[in-house]
Amino acid sequence: MNIVLVIGSPKGVKSTSNSVIKYLSSHLENLGVATQTFFVNKLIRKPETMQEFLSASKSADTLVLSAPLYNDSQPASVVKFMEEFSERWVAEGTDLRFAAIFNNGFPEAEHNDVALEICEAFASANSLEWIGGLSYAGGQAVDGGDLASAGGVARFIRPALDLLAGALSNGESVPAEAKALSRKYVTPKWLFGFVGKRFWKSKVKKYGTQKRLNERPYTP
Amino acid sequence: MKALVLDSITTITTEPGSQVVAELTGKGFDVEHIDLTKLNIKYCTGCFECWVKTPGICKFKDDAPEISRKVINSDLVILISEIVYGGFSSTFKAMWDRNLGLLHPHFTKIKGEYHHKKRYKRYPALIILGLDTAHEEKWNDIFIRLLDRNMANWHAPIYRTVIIAENQPLDVGPIVDGMGISA
Predict the structure, then answer these.
(1) Shortest CA distance to A148 belongs to which of A136, A161, A135?
(2) pLDDT for B101-145, tens place per residue?
(3) Which of A110, B92, B114, B133 has a CA positioned 20 to 30 A from the CA of residue A176?
């Protein structure tokens, strides 16, 4: 079993999307699955990396994309990757399955749903078998750290990824239980407004811009 | 009334952007047409400095910040993109993602769901023209739902999403009239 993993975050190594892939790949390797990881930034900027990725995907069983939500869908760099993939992918002789994992900074997993649908449409257009996706809300709090030691903010995504690793190692689709777990509220909705505000206030403190938060630089 | 046309499709003969400009100019709008394919716009890196370090302003000094300025100072913005798997094209999305500074990092609830708050007092009305080149009904359905989500995030006071076909004459006049917008 051979799985190709793509980190679709423009932040690269210091991203929640990478945290997710590192956790998943570690579990896959423990289950005896060979993995290869690529960063979308390199895929769209280095033709030789894209070629290496395409060669790896030709002989892989599954492709997994992990990406953040930008404006309710994939970041522009991931769209570019999808466009280039479509131009260069030759499906004949391949049997590649495709899964996606999206993370967002809201409390609701539903924000990721359209992005997952776009991934399904991408799979269909390129003769990949869509096997489902995970939807992780509140990923902001992981902030590129180690998912295994991220504590409560990752308490649902970790077991969801454990189930996903097991399913992928057996050539199965994304389990319904994994989907449901990934969508659970990390922060209750009633508390999120307070928690979210405190999160951004802590970020602003680093730059000393607390009094400038509400500035409107583009209008009089 | 200022209208801004953000056009990422300039390669088909019917040139929807030019048609829109002609119609809106005829209706008395002060129209600016921007060809996104000719601009230098880096991909958003998700650094959030436009929220926490230089509130409202992106750190990259390319063509994107000026687009943000023009968007928020327009009364009507027309967005034109090819529909790619149900989403925007990469050319369009590169520009769209870089407007994050027009929003505020704190949250508000819209119809029971969390979104980011407004940074500015008013936001433009929007017309989104999605060019259907793949002739996939499912992609068009996804695109419409994507824009419903987007427009909640972008606090558009009113918007319309229109799927357009290649070589189709456009008639945005009735759409603008139907939205109750006049020059």
Answers:
(1) A161
(2) 999 999 999 999 999 999 999 999 999 999 999 999 999 999 999
(3) B114
CA dihedral B66, B68, B69, B74 (to 10 degrees): 120
Element (H, E) at A30: helix A16-30
| DSSP secondary structure letters along chain B | -EEEEEE----STT-HHHHHHHHHHHTT-EEEEEEGGGS--PPP----HHHHTSTT--S--SSHHHHHHHHHT-SEEEEEEE-BTTB--HHHHHHHHTTGGGEEEEEEEETTEEEEEESSS---EEEEEEEESS--HHHHHHHHHHHHHHHHHTT-SSEEEEEEETTPPP-HHHHHHHTT---
List the single residue in A with minimal CA-CA distance to B118: A214
The pTM score is: 0.96
- Please list every residue in chain B whose beta carbon sits closer than 8 Å to the beta carbon of residue A75: 43-44, 46, 93, 97
Q: Which residue of A has its CA nearest to B137?
A: A121
B88 lies within 8 A of chain A by CB: yes
Contact B55 A203 (CB under 8 A): no
Q: How far apart are CA A95 and CA B70, in angstroms?
A: 47
List B residues 25-84 in contact with A (Cβ-Cβ < 8 A): 43-48, 51-57, 68-69, 72-73, 84
ipTM for the complex shown: 0.95
CA dist., res. A182 & res. A176, Å (int): 10
CA–CA separation, B43 and A15 (whole Å): 16
